[in-house]
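Repro:
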Amino acid sequence: MNLELYDTTLRDGAQQSGISLSLKDKLNITLKLDELGIPCIEGGYAASNPKDDEYFKLIQKENLKNAVISAFGSTRKPGSKIESDPIVQAMLNSETMTLAVVGKSSAKQVERVLETSLDENLKMIEETVSYLVHRGRRVVFDAEHFFDGFFSNREYAEKTIKVALDSGADIVVLCDTNGGMIPDDIKTIIGKVKDEGIKAKSLGIHCHNDTDTAVASTLVAFEEGIRHIQGTMNGYGERCGNTNLVSIIGNLQLKKNVEVLPSKKLQKLTEISNFISDTVNRTPDAYAPFVGSKAFTHKGGMHASAVNKYVDSYQHMDPSIVGNKSNITVSELAGRSNIISRLKDLKI
């Protein structure tokens, strides 16, 4: 299956309040993501700051085994010439072969935020994508505010992604930028987009977690045929975060039987999740699915007793598959089995 996980921890993930990455942090996280087997890593926003520009220079010296690096940027500014637009030129100067170009797909956003005409925005998309493609770059077009734009002006939202595809974009990513959609919305709108003749293989998905359904919405998009999935490790990101790629990897590989990572690499999932938490100066979430230190911890006496007899009685998988482990605690809820188990662990 031709599935592409697109990691944006270093760009979108770093936009979460309280996270600040040094140049060394960004390089170290890149190497760990490559070790895990992530196929595409968005390194940063071209021309946004000197650190990201330096990152794109230094990462070229690393011998990445699995990942390609993508640089993020935007369509040309309203009224500007493509040849002299600083962000467009910075994307080219990054020397990455994959470029993520964000453009407005909501008519309201075009008129109220960009303060330009709907026709000019379409020209911005067309000229930027075409210019970069003709210079040998693979373009991933991030259709910003697509879902909200679809609800307010469906015709225009669909026109933006058609223009991007017609101009040579390899993938158009449907973005729930405000994070307000729920899985039913995602499913319905993707279905309507496909009804317009746009093939699922040309689409990607980018969800935010403001309704606490980013992972569920992304899995729905996968069921609708989308094979380009954007997200961040541990779900870091603006406001409430992005789609958590840790959960996406776990659910696709272990519940949908989709080989996202080789089994030996899947065993590194907990380690690398914790490494990234430490690097961004966050305490690892002990209760995170799949990788949390408490994700397979059993406290209740009845549970502990059952797990000691039949390990799968109160856990949905073998935690060692993702490099985690199960644990039994002792508390006021403990039974005889809890205490015996802990004594064995302590070799008493």
